Every structure is written in structure tokens, then in C-alpha cells.
Amino acid sequence: MRQYRPARPRLDINAIGAAGEILAIVAPGFRAGDLHAATGKAQQDGYAVRIASTADSLVEGEGDKGDTLSFVVDAKPADSDPAEFAGLVIPGGDRHIDTLAADAGVERLVRSFVESGKPVLGWREGAQLLASFSPAPDTVRNADVAMALNGEVYPTESEEGRDDAAILFRQALELKPEKVA
Fold first, then answer.
1. Which residue of 13, 42, 103, 174 is surrounded by the most CB atoms within 10 Å?
2. Above 70 in pLDDT, residue 178?
3. What residues have CB less than 8 Å from 78, skipping those under 6 apart?
């Protein structure tokens, strides 16, 4: 009888957080599937994902099948320190982005991450939030995904581009950031 072997290693619950932590900044209505797509590879490699949200205690995200998923909020954006994290993820979701864009603590946090040189990955509408930190905001605003690294914001489009961005984000977590002046 043929033995089943998974295509890739399963997540080792004991290794979560061993490589570091990633901060995800979300508000009610974010796309939970975007969060998983952006952070899945990093989680397999031992990174933990912490949630900063404008919501209190629990925040609801939209699943890929239209279901609602609840996530525990670890901190408010204004109380989060980029020095404690390897990178930042901003998933998509129209309603969620509107809420984040209206919060001054979110802008300060995203700006701090970009200026620190650490990787910031904006997925779909999350790329729109990164647009204001780009020298060419219109190019980024229309992107499917944007990644900030060492103070520069790089947009990409297409499904392959999203997959590549998730891989590059994972690799960038290991880099020593160059602080932007």
C-alpha cells in the first residue's frame, strides 16, 4: 500500500514564533484569505502573526467562501512598535481599508515600518494604503500587491505577482533593513 506524504511540511506548533513575529494591521471586514496568502509561507518557517486592529478584542475578517472568521486582537495600531516585528502585512478589503485610512495611529505605524526599512506587504486594497509612501503613488494605487522594502515601494499586478510578492516578503524578513533617512 502506498503511503501518503504531504507535499510540504506541516506547521509545527512548537516552532511558531521561533523565527520572529509579523504584524498584520486589520479592521473589521478585512480579507482573511489575503492575510493567509501573504503570511502562510512565513508561518511555515516559524514566524508568528500578531494582529493590530482598530477593533477591540476580536476582529472579523471575510473568508474566501463568504464566511466570517474571527481573530484575536493583540494590540491597537498606536500601541504597536515596529522594532518588535520583522515585517508588516496589510490585507485587502474595501471597508477595512477605509477604516484604517481614517486612523492616525495606522498612518504613523505604516510610516514607521516603511522608514525602518523593514518589509511591508500591502495586498489588494492594502496596496492603496502603501501608495501614499511611494514617489509614484498612482502606480502603486492600481497595483494588486505592493511591497515596501528599505523605504521604496514596489507594485506588482497579476496572480503570479501576488505569489511572487509573498515569497519575496518571506525572504525579506531575513534581511537587515537599511533605515531610511
1. 42
2. no
3. 104, 105, 108, 109
The reported pTM is 0.86
Residue 107 C-alpha cell reads as 498612518
- Helix/strand/coil for 130: helix
Q: Hey, what amino acid is at 85?
A: F
Residue 25 lies in a domain: yes
Residue 95: predicted pLDDT: 83
Confirm if 127 and 141 have CB atoms less than 8 A apart: yes
**For 173, what's the count of Cα atoms within 13 Å in the CB-facing half-sphere?**
28
Total domains in the chain come to: 1
> Cα(93)–Cα(35) distance, rounded to whole angstroms?
11
Please give the span between the terminal C-alpha atoms of the chain, in angstroms, as a whole number. Answer: 62
Q: Is residue 178 part of a domain?
A: no
pLDDT at residue 22, as a whole number: 96
Q: Which domain holds residue 166?
A: 16-172
